[in-house]
Write a structure and sequence with these properties.
CATH class: Alpha Beta
Number of strands: 10
Radius of gyration: 14 Å
CATH architecture: 4-Layer Sandwich
CATH topology: Purple Acid Phosphatase, chain A, domain 2
Largest sheet: 5 strands, mixed
Number of helices: 3
């Protein structure tokens, strides 16, 4: 199963991410979606899961967290703004101890912490806003026997003059 993990679009999905993510089995968006992005990300895959972030409307239709069984393990998704950075990863791991991996956003900083379980995965920002190191996403290939991840990171788009 090909899973595209992204976060923090804030109303803009980098077109290179849209191009490379197209045709996924599942897109997971870890919040701070912004206008028009639910439709844009849903068009990339057979299925799309979205959680709400701290910059999404309070009356958002998206849940605060999602747990989804994939081939080979369980994936938990939460934006991550609920806790300060100092203990965010520890608190997420305690909240989802049965997950193979936890996806989060919020910091706009790419993290692929796979030394212990559950893994913590933050794809960084997929839009223009604070895309530290450039906009990107994580591709997860989930099989019953193995999970393989590949980060995709792009140069920042040139600003229009």
């Amino acid at each position: 199963m090909r899973v595209v993990i992204l976060a923090d679009t804030h109303g803009f999905l980098d077109p290179r991410i849209a191009r490379d993510a197209a045709g996924a089995d599942l897109v997971v968006h870890a919040g701070d979606v912004g206008p028009g992005m639910a439709e844009a990300t849903a068009a990339l895959a057979d299925e799309c899961l979205i959680v709400t972030g701290n910059n999404d409307p309070a009356d958002s239709v998206w849940p605060a967290e999602i747990v989804r069984d994939l081939p080979g393990g369980r994936l938990a998704v939460m934006h991550g703004h609920q806790w300060p950075a100092k203990n965010r990863h520890r608190r997420l791991a305690a909240r989802f101890p049965d997950a193979r991996a936890i996806v989060l956003g919020h910091s706009h900083r790419r993290v692929m912490a796979t030394d212990s379980r559950p893994w913590l995965l933050n794809p960084g920002a997929a839009g223009k806003t604070r895309a530290y190191g450039g906009p990107g996403f994580i591709e997860l290939i989930a099989t019953d026997d193995d999970w393989q991840m590949t980060p995709y990171v792009f140069e920042r788009l040139a600003r229009r003059k």
